[in-house]
Each structure stands twice: as C-alpha cells, then as structure tokens.
Amino acid sequence: MGVREGFGEIYGTAPEGVWAAPGRVNLIGEYTDFNEGFVMPLALPHTAVAAVSRRTDGVLRLHSADIEGPVVELHVDELQPLTDTSWAAYPAGVVWVLREAGHPITGADVHLSSTVPTGAGLSSSAALEVVVALALNDLYELGLTGPELARIAQRAENDFVGVPCGIMDQMASACATDGHALHLDCRDLSIRQIPFDLASQGLTLLVVDSRVKHALGDGAYAERREGCEEGARQLGVSHLRDVAYEELDAALARLSDERVRRYVRHVVSDDHRVDQVIRLLDAGEVRAIGPVLTEGHVSLRDDLRISCPELDLVVDTANAAGALGARMTGGGFGGSAIVLVEASDTDTITKAIEEAFAAAGYTAPRVFPAVPSAGARRLS
Ligand code: ADP
Ligand code: MG
Q: CA-CA 20 to 30 A from 201: which of 78, 223, 232, 273?
C-alpha cells in the first residue's frame, strides 16, 4: 500500500500532498563538513515518502508504516527538545525548529514510509527530516530554499533529537539532482552539480552495507570533532578548512599531540581528495578516482581511526578482486562502504565480498548499485 492510501486508512481523509526525500552515500570528503570543508555526496534511489495535510488546531499526528505502534499525537505548543527518544523526534523536531524560527505551523497529519535502510550510514534520518521540512514548506508556503530546508533539518537533528551531525546529509537529501554528485562547500553551502554518469562509462558504484553498527561509534564522533577543533585552535584558524594542503606538513610540525596531528592530516588531505576527484571528473578520467577513494579509506582507517574489521574487509577484498577503488563511507564503525567497479566485474566482486564475509563468520552484507538520483521533491 502506498502512503497516500495508508494516510487515508489512518486519518480517514486524503492527504493534501505526497513528498519524497532520498538517503545518500558520500563519494569523498568524510568528517570534513563540520570543519567547514568539502564533501561530495550523491542521492540514492531509496527515499522516505510522506503524505501530509495541514491542521489548524495545533495537533501534530505522526505515523510511520515502518514502525510498530499507534499514531503519535503531539501538540505543536508543547514540543520539548531532547525529551523524545523515539523516531517521532525527527519529524517533530522539524516542526519545532520551524516554529522557533517564527514560521506559523499550526499542526499537521503525517504518514510516512521509507526505503532507506536505517542505521546503514545512508542517512535515513536526514531523509525523514527533509521530507517533512519540504512538505511543510510547500503546504504552509514558507518559500524556503533547499539549503535553508537542509539547515532546518540539521537543527532538528542537532537541537531537538540531540545528534551532533554536520550539514552534508541534509544538503544531499534536499539539493541533489538526478545523474549528479553534489559538490558542496560546507562553509557557505554553495553547491555545484557534478555530472556523475557512471553507466555510460561502463562503470558501477556499489554500496556494500556491512550490516554492523559497533557501539564504539557512539562517543567517537564527538571525540573526533573535539580533536579537530583542538587542531584548529592550535593552528590559529577558525576551522581546519583554512589549512591549505600545500602547508599541511608545516602545520603538522606545529602540533604537539599525535592524536590531533592524525585528525588534522585526515581532514586536510580529505578536502584535497575532494579537489582531486572533481578535477578527474571534470577531465573525464572517471576510472582514476578509484585510487583516490582507496587513499581516503586508508586515511579514515589509520589517521581518523573510524573504520572497523568488516569495512576493511570490504575494501581489501574488493580491491584484491579487481575493483578500481573502495572506501568506507559515512560515520564509520560499521554502516556502508562504496566500491567502484567495471560494470562487467560487478558479479565477481560482489561474490568475492560475500564469500569473504561468510568465511569471517560475518552477517551477509547487502550490496546494491548507487544510482545517482534526485533530491527532495513533491510527488503528488
Ligand atoms: P541513519 O541516518 O544512518 O540511517 P540514524 O541512527 O541517524 O541512522 O537514524 C535512524 C533513525 O531514524 C531510526 O532509528 C528511526 O528513529 C528513524 N527512522 C529512519 N527511517 C524511519 C522510518 N521509515 N520510520 C520511522 N523512523 C525512521
Ligand atoms: Mg542519521
């Protein structure tokens, strides 16, 4: 059953409209967003889809087809940040942020469903926030732009849900376009749509969901963030984005702490890898981005230290089996990796990864192609 029909069954009326917002994978540029650097995500064909109607009585009703349980009923005047630990905090957070910003949201009925795998590092949470933000923007005629909606969604996750994420996921979901990767400057949110048509080149980008999420990741994000801020402080810049790659060695020599030095080296070199990938894509040398992806993985593994045995196994196995390059993607400690392959090698490389996981006693991974897809949009 589609969300339009589901909405009718739950609320007894037709929704005013239906919207979709995608999950994403990041091609290159990891842990660079909160350093005001560069990232390059692409939207997946997997989307959160929401059927939504306005209300005038202050009531906010939320229902997910993917979650067991009754309709969650809240009141827009009584939303309290950091109190709700359920899924409903994501859409409720968007309403709270909009109202805090002075937008007159007087209630809504929401019924949603998502094909973005949760907890796989593919940003099911951003898809949820962005789809609700876009629906309310359209219904309440707020006139907000894609980047503005992304900021609102990020604030909902940071301040209402309590997850300290950067801006990449929400920007990808709000602003990506079909057939492109999104080159995003996380300082001013300026974007450039980079044509990323792998199929015409005989290439495929695979997503490998490792099916694990290590608890270690919980405090690690905040710790890396703190370490990066410490590095910026010691180097006398506002953010690590301001350390030029050409001056990296000199900058590293000025840092006393081995841990901070590793984090700075990762961030500055990954910003540089985004540049490299852009240059190669602009020059039509798509295959040449493979080794850059693998260098990014080594940096995440050895300098930032956010990989895990399962993700390392994907990358090592894929590369040994003839992939052009591979890296973990997203927050780390589990989640997904991406693998660039000749399309004709897809089956053999997928099989090699599956066999390696079986031999290691790991849960079978989920493998699918990352087809660059459209960002958030109204469906009907
Ligand atoms: P990721 O964003 O990497 O998928 P997160 O932990 O950030 O992982 O977000 C996952 C959370 O988002 C879920 O635990 C749930 O609360 C919420 N969520 C995602 N998809 C849905 C859905 N279809 N229905 C309800 N809640 C969802
Ligand atoms: Mg998330």
A: 273
Specify the DSSP element, H or E, that contains 171: helix 168-175
Residue 30 annotated as part of some ligand binding site: yes
What is the chain's Cα-based Rg?
21
Environment class of 298 (CB within 10 Å of its CB; exposed 0-12, middle 13-18, buried 19+)? middle
C-alpha distance from residue 53 to each of 132, 140, 192 (Å): 11, 10, 33
Query: Strands of 377-378's sheet, edge to edge?
Result: 72-75, 59-64, 108-114, 41-54, 17-26, 377-378
Whole-angstrom Cα distance, residue 86 to residue 63?
12
Based on DSSP, count helices (H) and strands (E) in the chain, helices before strands: 11, 13
Is the CB of residue 35 below 6 angstroms from any atom belonging to ligand 1? Answer: no
Q: Distance (Å, rounded) from C-alpha 346 to C-alpha 59?
A: 49
The token pair at 128 is: 């949820």
Q: Tens digit of pLDDT for each residue in 339-357?
A: 999 999 999 999 999 999 9
- CA–centroid distance, residue 216 to ligand 2 (Å): 16
**Cβ neighbours, 10 Å, residue 290:** 20
Query: Which backbone phi and psi does 163 adopt, to 5 degrees?
Result: -105, 120
**So which residues are the catalytic ones?**
169
32 is in an annotated binding site: yes
Q: Residue 232 phi/psi, 5° resolution? A: -60, -40
Do strands 366-369 and 17-26 pair parallel, antiparallel, or not at all (unpaired)? unpaired
This prediction has a pTM of: 0.96
Tell me the C-alpha distance between 50 and 113, whole Å.
7
Which residue, among 120, 127, 41, has the nearest Cα to 333 in the 3D structure?
A: 120
ipTM of predicted assembly, 2 dp? 0.99
